[in-house]
Amino acid sequence: MAPEDLKEYAGLTTTTVVCRQHLTLSAAGTELIRWALEGTFGAIKETEITDEAVNGKEENDTSIKEDADEEVSRTSVQFTVMECVNVLVKPGGHVEVSWEGNVINDGIADAVLAVLFTVESSPAAVRRKSSQFRHLPILS
User: Fold this and answer.
1) Which of 112, 113, 131, 132 is the most buried (most CB within 10 A)?
2) How many other β-carbons are positioned within 10 Å of the β-carbon of residue 81?
3) Which domains does the chain have, with CATH numbers?
4) Which residues neighbour 35 within 8 Å (Cβ) at sequence distance 6 or greater?
5) pLDDT surpassing 50 at residue 73
């Protein structure tokens, strides 16, 4: 019996559980995350998401200034792994992994999270993070 038929023939309802895991990857960038996911899962779908409401605007304490001198980027990248697990990489290293909860998707999501945590501590990510600190001015 198909899940859609449960209500009509058995009087049962179905529920979809969406699972989300939030994490912060301060060392690994979008390119490194893409490389690690492609290396583990093969081809992945990539979608660029731009928040048009705040793109190009600078936010002050009191108001939003329209034409900012410096462009404020609110572009996020979403990777879809095996057509069931979405990895949304937001500015500032914030990552959200979401999937529809079931036995197969839970296993794939566990593998995706393992890859993300591994890439965060990889030598390439550590090297990338340390090179960012080299360009900071020394304050006296």
Assistant:
1) 112
2) 23
3) 16-49+75-132 (3.30.160)
4) none
5) yes
Q: What percent of the chain has pLDDT over 90?
A: 46
The helix/strand/coil state of 122 is: coil
Residue 41 burial by CB count (10 A; 0-12/13-18/19+): exposed, middle or buried? middle
Instruction: Output the six-digit token pair for 107.
Output: 């296993």
Tokens 């909860």, located at residue: 101
Looking at per-residue confidence, does 6 or 71 come out higher? 6
Do 97 and 86 meet the contact criterion of CB atoms below 8 Å apart? yes
Indicate the average pLDDT of the chain.
80
Q: 115: which residues sit within 8 A by CB, 6+ positions away? A: 36, 37, 40
Percent of the chain whose pLDDT exceeds 70: 72
